[in-house]
Amino acid sequence: MDATRYVLTKDYDPFIYQFISNGPRGDIKKIIQFQLIDLENNLYNLAFGDWNELTKQMDDLVVSNNHDKQKVLTTVAFAVKDFIENYPNANIFAKGSTHVRTRVYQIGISLFLEEISNYYRILGYVDDQWELFETGVNYESFLLSKK
Amino acid sequence: MKTITSRNKIVIPEIKVDKGIPDISNDPFFLQKKQNAIEFLKQHPIPGNMLQKQK
Q1: What InterPro entries does the record tag this protein with (chain A) (predicted)?
Q2: Distance of alpha carbon A65 from alpha carbon A11, whole angstroms
Q3: Which of A64, A126, A133, B18 would disulfide-bridge A9, Cβ 3.0–4.6 Å?
């Protein structure tokens, strides 16, 4: 993934990553967490959002709009890549908190599909079934794992 | 005769550890995200043959 991305840092907890988005709305701390939801199947949920320095909590449903959507997507993708390298048996589930955000994830996957499909298998959920990801289909959620 | 057969290589991790990351272990946002994912997958389970298994 050669596209521009933000600098990622990790927590001592290996499931948590952070980066700072810069733009017209200032510096916004973004946190990514890989949440173990099924130990038997090594299934993790990709959770991601903005940290509010004032409330000391994550901001729910905020639209930070720092005009850096692609850079943010690339950064999240890099975190996924790093996580899978450390946990090669992981299955990573992702679903946006809104349809719009799910669509953003889809755009991100489509952007990198040619590059990543050599190493990763990507599934999408649509019409009551899981299938191999195809561009142009509006999926409800996604699953990524190493081939 | 002493020969050097290997050199110590220092690998700098591309992603560094940051002590300043907030504690999100009980953050309601992340807890809700996890619960939402669990609920979705309960209703729309992934077939076993589509999951990456232990190698």
Answers
A1: DUF6934 (IPR053865)
A2: 25
A3: B18
b/e per residue B8-27 (b: at least 16 CB within 10 A)? eeeeeeebeebeebbebeeb
Q: What is the pLDDT of residues A58-108, one digit of tens each?
A: 886 666 678 898 899 889 999 999 999 999 999 999 998 888 889 988 988
pTM confidence score? 0.87
The tens-digit pLDDT sequence of chain B (55 residues) is 444 455 666 655 678 888 788 888 889 999 999 999 999 999 999 999 899 876 6
B21, B40, B55 member nearest A88 (Cβ) = B55
What tokens appear for A107 in the block?
A: 């755009």
ipTM score: 0.88
Chain A residues close to B47, C-beta within 8 Å:
130
